[in-house]
What we know:
The protein is α/β, with parallel strands linked by helices. It has helices at residues 2-10, 15-30, 34-42, 49-60, 106-122, 139-148, 160-167, 196-209, 223-238, 252-257, 272-284, 305-308, 332-336, 347-368; strands spanning 94-99, 129-134, 153-155, 175-177, 190-191, 214-219, 242-247, 265-269, 292-294, 315-318, 374-375, 380-383, 389-392, 394-399, 402-405. The radius of gyration is 21 Å and the shape is globular.
Amino acid sequence: MQAQALAAQHAHLRGTERRANGEAIERLLAGLDDATLARDAARLPADDPLYAFAGRALLRRGLALPHPFARREADFGSAQRPPAAADGYRPPLQVAVLLPLSGPQAPAAAAVRDGYLSGYYGETRRRPRLRFYDTTPGVATALARASADGNDFAVGPLLREDVDAVFADDPPLPLLALNRGEHSPTPGSAAFSLSPEDEGISLALALIERGRRHVLLIAGSEDAQRRTAHAAETLLRQRGAQVTRLPASPTLASALAALTPAPDAVLLVLKGAQARSVVPQLALANLGTLPRYASSQITQGTGKPSEDMALDGTLFPTEPWLVEPVAGLPSQAAAATQVATAKGPAARLFAFGLDAWRLTGYLQHLALQPNATLQGATGHLQLDGFGNVLRRPAWSQFRGGRPLPLPDDAP
C-alpha cells in the first residue's frame, strides 16, 4: 500500500524528487520475498502505476510477469513496416545511427558502430537502410537532420548527457538510446545500457539467490567502481543482507583482521591487479575459502595465467559472446579477424553494438510479449514497463588462471 501511494504520484515528479520516489518504491518492493511479490503483482491491473515497478522487480529476479505491461506506445514506429517474421523480427525501414563519430568518444563509438554493422550484415532477412550521424557537434542537430532525412527509427545517442537531452522532450523519432540517464525513455522509445548500476544489481541478485546474508564488499575508488558498488550494496541491504564495505587501501589487512561479524561471501569491485593483491590478504584473514564474486572489471589487467591463478574461484558477470558462441551472431573469433574492435578492451562495446542491432529488429516483439527474451551478445535481454532493456549476464569463473564460462543456471 505504501508503494502504491508513492507510485500514484511518480509521473508528476521531476528531477531528484522523482529519483528519490522511485528508489523508495524499489526499497519497499525489495522487502518482499519472491512468492509475495509475484502474488501481489498479479493482483495489480496493468494500468496501475505500481505494476511497472513490480514487473521490473520480477524481471530482475528472473521471474515471469503475470500479465503484459500497459504501454501507451508499443509499435516503435512500425506502422508502415512489413509484418513481423515468425520469431518477431520486424526491423524499421530506414535507421539513423546517432554516435559521437568525432572527438574524444570516437574510439568507443567506433567499437559500437562495428558491432552494429557486424550484426546488420550478418542478417540474411530484410534489413533497413542505414545512415550515420555524428552527435559531437550537437545531438539535437543530428536528430533533427535524421528526422528530416526520412528515417523512421534512430539508434543512439551514446553519451548519457545526450540521452538526457533527447528524453527531456519528445524526440521527433522513436529511438533506442544507447545509454541511460535521469530521464526515462519517452513513450515509443527505449533505452539500452551497459551501466555499472545494472552490473551491481546483477551481482547483488546472484548473492541473494544463493542465500548470502553477510557480504564483505571491497571496492576501488574509480567512478564506475563506486557506481557498481553502491548499486550492489543498496539492493543487498534492501533485501535484508548485512554489508561491510571496505576500500582497497593499505590498511585493508588490519581491517580484515578486525572484521566482525564474519562474512559468508566476498564481493570485489576491483580491476585485475587490485584483486590479485587483495585475494592473498583474504586468505591471511581466513576468508580465502568464502564464495568470491567480482565485477567484470576484474578482467581488466588480466591475461597471464601464471599471475591470474591468484584469482581462481572468483565468479564474475560477463557478456556471453566474449566466452562462447551465441546463436545467430558471428563468433568473436570470426569477427576479430575482420575488425580490431572485436577483441581486447573494445570487445565489450562491440558486443553492445551487436545487441543494439538485434534490438532494432525485436523491440516491438519484446514489448508485446510480456515474457519474451532475446538472447544477445551481452546477455538475456527483456523490456521493462518503463522502456528500459534489462540484461541478465552470463557468468564466468577463474580456473587455472583463465576465465571459463559457467552453465546458464550458474553461479
